[in-house]
Every structure is written in C-alpha cells, then in structure tokens.
Amino acid sequence: MARSTKYNPQITESKWYQYWMKHGMFHSEPDDQKEAYSIVIPPPNVTGVLHMGHMLNNTIQDILVRKARMEGKNACWVPGTDHASIATEAKVVAMLKEKGIDKKSISREAFLEYSWEWKEKYGGIILEQLKKLGASCDWDRTRFTMDKDLSEAVIQVFVDLHNKGKIYRGIRMVNWDPKGKTALSDDEVVFKEVASKLYHIAYKIEGTEETLTIATTRPETIMADVAICVHPEDPRYAHLKGKKALIPLINKSIPIIADSYVDMSFGTGCLKITPAHDINDYEIGQRHQLEVIDILNDDGTLNEKAEILIGEDRFIARKKIAKLLREAGQLPKEEEYASNVGHSERTDAIIEPRLSMQWFLKMEDITQPALRAVMDDTVRLFPPKFKNMYRSWMENVRDWCISRQLWWGHRIPAYYLPNGAHVVAASLDEAVQLANRQHNEQYTAKDLKQDEDVLDTWFSSWLWPISVFDPDFFKTGKKNKDLSYYYPTNDLVTAPEILFFWVARMIIAGYEYTGEKPFRNVYLTGIVRDKLGRKMSKSLGNSPDPLALIETYGADGVRTGMLFSSPAGNDLPFDEKLVEQGRNFSNKIWNAYRLIESWEVKESTEEANKTAIAWFESRFHQSLSELTDHFEKFRISDALMTLYKLIWDDFCSWYLEMVKPDYQKPVDQLTKMRTTRFFEELMKILHPFMPFITEELWQQVQKRAEGDALMLADWPKMKAFDASIISEAQQVFEVVSQIRNIRASKGISPKESLDMTINTQNQGIYIKFDGVIKKLANIESIRFGEKEDNALSFVAKADEVFIPIEEKIDPEQEKETLRKELEYTRGFLKAVSKKLENERFVSNAPEAVVLLEKKKMADAQAKMNALEENLKKLDQSS
After folding, report:
1. Is 487 exposed, middle or buried (0-12, 13-18, 19+ CB in 10 A)?
2. Would you say residue 323 lies in a domain?
3. Which of 244, 347, 583, 802 could form a disulfide with 757 if both were Cys (CB 3.0 to 4.6 A apart)?
4. 122-173 pLDDT, tens per residue?
C-alpha cells in the first residue's frame, strides 16, 4: 500500500480525534467487573484560553488516563470549568463598559443575565482547545461549578457548616482588592518586592516646639492616624507619654501611647497608629480602645473622612501628600526602600488591609484530618519536597474569609430579618420558616433580604472530586453509583501555586464529608518559564500561542517537547527547540515504519537475525520495567526519555540497521514478522505520550476492524529479560561506534572493508555478534590475538581492538588519544561511583537499575586498567 513520504500531523490528528469521539472511547460508566481509574481536571476558568501551563498539566493527565485505559482499567477523566467570580465579573464589567453600560446602573438580575450570556459565548473555548491537544476527557461528563445541581451542593455545604458552628460572620481585618472591589483570603494574596520610598514625617507635639519623626511608606494614610505609639521602656520618649501630637496638614490632635509591640531599634522607634489600614495597628488599637477611621473608598480613592484630597486615587494622593509635607517643612527625609507588598492573585492590584464585615470558615479543627493524611502519605505528594510546605501552611492556617463582594457566583444563603438578625437556609422558603420558628413571628418572603455577597470561588471547587460525581450527596449523605465507584479518585495533576488554594481544601472537604481522601496521588507540575527564567505571561509577551505551536509542530510534537525537560515540581525552561525535537521524533518514527513497510519478503521460515531479535526483545522488556518504575514514582519526563532512547537509539539506530536487508534484497519472513510486532508494541507504550501518530501507524500495520483502536489495545505484559545479552550488545555497539569514529577521523570510506583483531577474554560475545559487527562496521574478518603492528587501536570496556591500516601510526598521537579516553573514563567512573554512594538512590531504585550501575562501574574500572596498560606498552615501545 502506498503511503505518504511525509507525516502530516494536522490531517492525522483531526481524523483520529473524530474517530475516538465517534466511537465513544473516552466515555466511562461504572462497571464492577473492572477496576476504576479516575481523574478530575483542575477546572480552568471560563475566562481562560489555553496557555502553556494548561498544555503541560493536561498532557500529563492525558498520559496517565490513556495508560490506565490500555491497562484494562475503567478510566474516567472528568472535564469542566470554574466560574471564577473575580475574573469573570471583571470581563463582564469591561464588556458592559464597551457598550456604554455602567454596572451600577443596572440590577443584579440584569448583570447576571449578561454574565450567563458571556459564559455561554466564551466559557467553553478552553475545553474545545484541549481537544486539539488530544485530551481524552469524558466530554459527556463536562461540569461547570455553577451548574444548578453543583450550585445546590455548595449552598448545602454552607448551611451544614454554619449549623455545625464552623462558619461565622464578623468584622475582621481582611485583604481588600480595590480593583475587584472584594475581600480576598490570605491565600489569594501574592507578595512581590516593590521599590518605594520611606518617608520620614515630622509630627509636632501639641503645645511645644518639639517634633517627633515617624518613618512610613504610606503617607497618604496619615489622615487616618489615631495615635502615636512608643515603647514603654524607651527613654527617648518617656517625657512624651500622656501628651498629644498633631497630624500634619490637618492639625488634628492625637494621643501618644506606649505599647511593647514597638521595636525600639527599627526606624525612629515610634509608630503612627492607623487601625483601619494595617492589621498590626488594628490590634494595637483594640488593646488601647482607639477609634477606627477608614479614609478609603472600596476602589482605593480617598473618602470625605480624609478631609483633604477627597476622591484622589491612593497612589496619586501619596505623591501629593509628600509634596504638601515637603512644602510645610514636615518631610525632613526621604529614602529609597524596597518592601514586600501584597497583590491580588486575580487582578494584580495592590491589596489594602481593610476592616470589613465578612463570612469566615473556622480552619483550626477542620484541617486536622487533611494534615494527617499528607503527613502519613495516605495522600502522596510528588515530589515529596512539598510536604514540609504543606505542613507549615496547615499548622499556621488562619480562618478562611469566604465572602466576596461580587454578583457573579454562589450567593450566600443568609437572610436578614427586619430586626437585624439573620438566618441561614438553603432557600428563601426555608429561611422564612426558620425565622418564624426562631423568633416566633409571622414573617413573609418580603420581610427577608438575602445577603448581597457571593462565596469565594474556591468554596465550590473544594467540593469538585465529590460534586462532579454526585452533587446530591451533600443533601442525602448517601453515595450514588458514580461516587461509590469513582471516588476516591486516583491522581490529581496540578500546579504547586494552588496547593493551598485548592488541593489542601479538597482534602479537607473530602474528610469532612466522606471521611476519606479525595485522591491517592498529587502530581505537582513545574511552572513553565521562558529561556530567561521568567514566568510566561501575556503582559511580558513571552508566551507562545499553544494552538500555533500545535499547528506548526503537531500535538504529539508539542506534548513530547514540553515533557523533555519538565520533572515534577521543577520549573520548565521552555524552548521551542524542544518542540521541534518532538516533531523530529514523530518524523523519525514515521520514517522507521516506512522503512519496515518497504521490505520485500522472501518465502522462507529461516530467521537470519536471531541475535538481533533476541537482543531487542530483552531490551524492550528492560525498558518496559524502567517505564513501569518511572510511572509508579510519577517521573513522567523520565518515562518519556526511556521511550525516546529505546525507539530512537535502540530500535531505529541499532536494531533496524542490524536486520534491514541489503539494498534491493528481500528480508526473511520471520524477521519481517518479528520487526513488525516490535513496532506495534513500541506504538502501544508510546501511545499515551504521542496518541495521534501511534494510532495512525498502528492502524497502518494491519487492517483493523471498525471501532478497533490502539487507545483501547492491551498494554504489553512485562516479561523476564536477558541482562547479559543487553550488556553484550552494548559492548558490540561501542566497538562499532569506535570503528566508525576511526573511519571518520582517517577519511576511510564506509564502503571500504576493514579487518579487526581483538584482544579479549570474552571471545563468545564477538562470535555471537559476528554478523552484526561485520554488517554495521563493514568488517571483512574478525581475529583474536595480541597487538598488531601498524594498527589503530582503542579500548572497549576491557577489550583492546586493533584495526590494521596501511599508513604509519604516529605513537605520540596514539598516546594522546588514549590519554583523552582515559581522562573521560575516569570522569565517568567518578560519576557512577557518586551515584552508588548515594543511599537514597540505592534504596529507592529498582534492583536491576542498581546492578546495572554497578556493572557500569566495573566496566569503567576494567577499561581504565586496559587503557593504562596500553599506554604503558606504547611508552615502552617508543
């Protein structure tokens, strides 16, 4: 059958994805006769489009799911999206602004209509893009965090936790996002180093000529000052206790107080106390019963309580206040200052500490089972280095601020009565009944007003592994068929930066509601960075378009390219050359198959390549063993490299060269059959990584029935392998490579046959591989014996190999070559020895791998001995 000489990924990928979808191969239903394997997707925001982080994360998930399917498991990968309250509301507000509509001018109901319209238009884009990558999600199970039944689950959980006394409402200092105009939890604040200034402001002491200098980075908040604070034991300010100071520019009188919180050695040793705009100042204010004056609006502009610069943005006000202080002679010093400043994780706006009435979830007790689960490896983190970070966060966790001042999201099910009290219920009708029972009244629905706020987005996604299978579980307490079968899920693949936002909270919810873990393993990917080490972002313009990469290099090329340098938990320094390498790998595989397919077969049962076939069969099963170990330890990048070397080096560069027939000559029937079978097996174990090209070639190898696909084929069974033939072949390949190097360095044509003499204690290897050496190195005859005169030589492990040539050998040049080889071998020996001295490696690596390293060390030592002996002989002869 004629095949295209060039692989076309665009045609292939579209064809096979449609084929898989048409035959429902991604769909899963509970089946008690099969072992379940389930993964839930980290739901991307409905505002999102595919970026490089999604590419890496979803490629890894797809690899795990495809492998599980081929192993005969009932694999279910649940896709979905997150409503992303802050980000989506910002998008809708911007869209309305373009239409000339101000959010404040429309009702909540109208705004939500626009939001749902926006979600329906744009919310599914990223899931469609994932299909281009080859993601084998069960699209029939696609969920959205604001689906009706998932929303009811969220409300049910809020009511339940409130009834248990774990959710409360109170005034607390929170992180305020002036751009999103909402409170944030501590985990949604990202600290960045910001270059600013330290302003030294002179406060006059009331009734005297004396001044007190205070250093601050925020002069715009002086109008909210309610006291000056010094340390009670600071002798410099003992005479000022009980006196008052005047706030510059507004001349308002404030007391001078003493509190041991003040660090006498920092700055001038005294603080301005602004309880409304600093958490530490707030706590001091509480101790001293100070007034709280909030001078900022929710958008970060100054309000009327500031008395001056009303309506100015906080940062413009900062510059103007500094100018006014300078002019008033009350700014004696300004200095450059770098400090860590909190930014909103969603909008990147600088956070304002702000006193606010919010809803909170008590975290101290509810986190304990989740902490134990990770510490005792009931839930395993990969890499394990994240366990300490997880423990630190869980042991120092603060109550979770779960309310957000937004309209898009799950509205808090709290209802306020005319008397100011409130009730919490799953619906308005239930709230009315509850209010009447509790207050012995006859309220109607019109008397109750629902809380305006919505819940933090993470308050819905923390239920994701449960709610996607059985949202009614939170109401009934009984697992349906799906939840009973698929939960706990097996693996979670996500980014380290949401280990606390999402992963920890899912574990908390899992134990709170099911009494067990939500997943067994958590694989934490690295962050995709550019070649300069910067995180990829639209603002920096350093992130390639993933879909453009797929168009250029093919999905298989992009998948493998990203994995070539992305070990778990370590950042990925992305380079497009890696993706190009992935495409080249596709082309290598394509051309290998075209070569095999081109062989004509002679009618014979004779097998002319027994040694080559025996070697590759053992090498295949050795690699399969390594692959299994890598998967068990979630070394996905290492697993790919194992396959890459097996296919590119062992199969294409060695095996096919060993068995391919001479030009225009036929191959024996058994060699063709065994080679084709090897190729099929290679396509199977490569399929999870490169699903499209492997499916295409597997279908080409032989005619398959409609609905028969590689993605549903059986994963190869591991068999015992012959380690000795693998080792012997490595010895032979080294000899062949050295002979090829000699040809290249001496300008000897590959077509010119050479003779070879070997000084060895292992003649059996060369007798067994006699035909291989003669074919691959174009050797006329192989003899065994001592050194030959006028011959080039090299050492392969402990064996000395001599290639007689007509030209005279320069002994000094030969010695220089041997010295370089000796130096290289010493370095290799040192590296292997260091690995074997590592107790962690020896105890964790498979026994076969450790034995292989020990053999490498013994071979290197033997080679060094032979090289040193050869040098000695050359010295003696010269």
Report:
1. buried
2. yes
3. 802
4. 988 999 999 999 999 999 999 999 999 999 999 999 999 999 999 999 988 8
Same domain? For 815 and 704 the reply is no
Examine the domain organization and report whether 236 and 256 are in the same domain.
yes
Domain count for the chain, please give it: 4
pLDDT band (50, 70, 90) for residue 807: low
Q: Are 736 and 797 within one domain?
A: yes
Residues 204 and 125 in one domain: no
Lookup: tokens for 343: 């930014």
CA distances from 187 to 54, 260, 499 (A): 21, 29, 10
To which residue do tokens 């990147």 refer?
Answer: 348
The answer to the question of residue 113 being in a domain is: yes
* 89 contacts: CB under 8 Å, gap ≥ 6: 115, 180, 406, 407, 408, 409
Range of the domain at 33: 9-156+461-529
- Residue 334: HSE in the Cβ half-sphere, 13 Å Cα cutoff: 14
Residue 401: its H or E element: strand 400-401
Residue 848 has pLDDT above 70, yes or no: no
End-to-end CA distance of the chain: 63
The label of the residue with tokens 């008052």 reads 244
Of 467, 343, 454, the closest CA to residue 115 belongs to: 454
Do 477 and 508 have their domain in common?
yes
Same domain, 57 and 142: yes
Give the pair of three-digit tokens for residue 480: 């349906």
Domain boundary among 484, 502, 529: 529
Closest alpha carbon to 798 in 860, 730, 726: 860
Number of neighbouring beta carbons within 10 Å of residue 685? 23
